[in-house]
Amino acid sequence: MTLQLAVVASGNGSNAQAIFDAIAQGRLDACVRIVFSNRPGARVLDRAEQAGIPSLCLDHTMYSDRSAYDRTMAKNLHDAGAEVIALAGYMRLLTADFLHAFPGRVLNIHPALLPAFPGVRGAGDAQDWGVKIAGCTVHFVDEEVDHGAVIVQAAVPALPGEPLEDLQARIHRMEHRIYPQALQWLATGRIELIGRQVHVRDAAAHAPVPRAEAMPDCLVWPPLEEGF
Ligand code: GRF
After folding, report:
1. Is the CB of 157 under 6 A from ligand 1?
2. For residue 123, which atom of ligand 1 is closest to its CA?
3. Per-residue confidence at 211, pLDDT binned at 50, 70, 90?
4. Is the CB of 153 under 6 A from ligand 1?
5. What is the pLDDT of residues 101-115, one digit of tens each?
6. How far does the centroid of ligand 1 lie from the alpha carbon of residue 88, in Å?
7. Contact 146 CB / ligand 1 (< 6 Å)
8. Ligand 1: does its nearest atom lie under 6 Å from the Cβ of 141?
9. More confident: 85 or 228
10. Which ligand 1 atom minimizes the distance to the CA of 87?
11. Cβ neighbours of residue 61 closer than 8 Å, sequence gap 6 or more
């Protein structure tokens, strides 16, 4: 069933663009009913215009009450026909007022392998920690920061001493693949949530879990040497 989406973002919107592109290319069965931003001038609003998608910006600094802002936002997205919300770089914590309007239907992308490194500096915090494998996570949103059930994760190598921008670019490239994929699983009714566990129906039929001895080296970084 075609997903009736709202894409909600505060900034650049490269993930929003990846969603628009996946729809345009027929890989994602969704319709973006509205692009919403809390930041006037955000690049994501230009991207929406270029893609011919309606957009709305409500400047959060004009609201003293966070709940009132979220209720107004929820009403606007609902009135636009959105049923599922894709947060794509939305730099505000959503209140229960918003989440109750779209129960179990708000997704987010985070630039770290949750539950490690939640918060606004996911990739930077992972790099500062000295991780060897970084990555990104698509998850359902609940009332705690970067806490909801995990749908899909991608791992990428983190290289000691590399500029943060390089690591971020590597993570971004995977974000742009896993977010549209997660939404397509949702569109095709293949996501089942049991407690904290997300099951993607028939996923194993498409890609069998590799046996331990056949795991690709790219999941281990630095790469294993012969004999290990
Ligand atoms: C991404 O890194 C995403 O993981 C995080 O915010 C960033 C948004 O990037 N939630 P963009 O605006 O989609 O380029």
Report:
1. no
2. 2
3. confident
4. no
5. 999 999 999 999 999
6. 6
7. no
8. no
9. 85
10. 10
11. none
Which of 147, 166, 172 has most ligand 1 atoms within 8 Å of its beta carbon, as the pocket-test mutant? 172
pLDDT computed for residue 213 by the predictor: 72
11 CB near ligand 1 (under 6 Å):
yes
CB contact at 8 A, 131 and 109: no
Report whether the peptide linkage leading into residue 115 is cis, meaning its omega lies within 30 degrees of zero: yes
- DSSP per-residue letters across 114-147: TTSS-STTHHHHHHHHT-SEEEEEEEE--SSTT-
| Smallest CA separation from ligand 1 atom 6, residue | 89
pLDDT in tens, 158-183: 999 999 999 999 999 999 999 999 99
Please give the number of the atom of ligand 1 that sits closest to the Cα of 17. Answer: 13
Question: Residue 139 to residues 119, 135, 160, 183: CA-CA distances in angstroms?
Answer: 14, 13, 28, 11
214, two tokens: 């056949």
Does 206 score more than 70 pLDDT? no
CA nearest 66: which of 94, 40, 106? Answer: 94
* pLDDT tens, position by position, 45-86: 999 999 999 999 999 999 999 999 999 999 999 999 999 999
Single pTM value for the model:
0.94
CA dihedral 65, 68, 74, 78 (to 10 degrees): -150
Residues tagged active-site: 110
